Amino acid sequence: MILCLILGVTLSGCIEEFEADIPTDDSDLLVVEGTICSSQQNIFTLSRTQAINSHGILRMVTGAKVSVHGSDGSEYRTEDNYGFYSCWIGALDPEVEYYLHIEYDGEVYESVPQKPLRTEKIADVRGVQNTPESDIDILVTPEVPFHADKTNYYSWTYDETWEVYPDYTTNMYYDTTLRKGIFKMHQFPERGWKDATGSTIMVGASTNYEGQHIQRLKIYDLDHSNERVYYRYSGLVHQRAISKAEYEYELARQQADSEMGGLFTPLPSALPSNIHCLTSSKHIIGFVGCALNTSDYRFFLNADDFSIYYPHQEDARQWFDDPSDALCRRLLDEGLFLCIWKDERLSGGKLETAWAYEHQLDVRYKGAYIEEPDFWSLTENVSY
User: Fold this and answer.
1) Contact yes or no for 303/226 (Cβ under 8 A)
2) Cα distances (angstroms) measured from residue 354 to each of 244, 265, 330, 345
3) Per the confidence metrics, is the pTM higher than 0.85?
4) Bridge partner list, 304
């Protein structure tokens, strides 16, 4: 799992406050982040911190030798893709300690060896709207912890998919031979979907929960006026058990981000880290976790179950009464499509027409794709 290097961390529920010592000269430090995960593609990012006047341009580190080692002699070498170092790792042994090994610019760095942590499944994820005017809080409940006698620490990330509809629809077209509107369905996709990856990493501790069992912890929220919740929304929450040290690192990183205005402007060397330079006294920023597994939970929200605010939009179609054939042809030449042909002239009324551009009728112009996701037909939430 990649830990995004520029994002801020939104913390809630049982999160404790961290007081960070913020120095001012921490540019050009090596930053390493990633998680050693069992039975999946692992990606580790290497970059450098930068001065506060560098306009937020991330400096990725290429050309390093990066590999994962185990205390049993196992080794997994990565491939460099512009600062993203990836390798496939098979099933990890829960009794073996694993660490990241880096060789770069004449120095050798290693993370602290650690046994992979086992993660409970997610019991429930739900959306709760406290008032009709409030946003929708997303609450997570892990299953009963493996260790109910000590504090449990977790991190959560999420992916999103939501349904999108065009501004307008049409079931007809203007026939230039017959000089009138003709019925025709499915000229444009009826709907589409958009995807996104959540912009925050959430962490939590079970300290204040009975039986060390976190329940209904808010991990993010959805604006009740955002297009994400206009129709149907699906979130895929990823849960990973983390160590106390990684939990404290994430807290410190959030504190540094809030006080400095961004991790790389500059990133404080006071951040805790489990990565050290073996060949010199150089400081390094980052944290490498180790997981035996991650747990996923897909949930769905339907707009009918919440109070959704749909901002009012003026009708942006072009309306013409009793248009001539010449006008209709000109509208077609200008790239408009017939949406409404309401002819009441035989009863003493008039002909009303409405026209729209393709970008108003096709959801692909909104950045949506039209192939239905394979999970969209699910009617119930699923824990993986």
Assistant:
1) no
2) 62, 52, 14, 16
3) yes
4) none
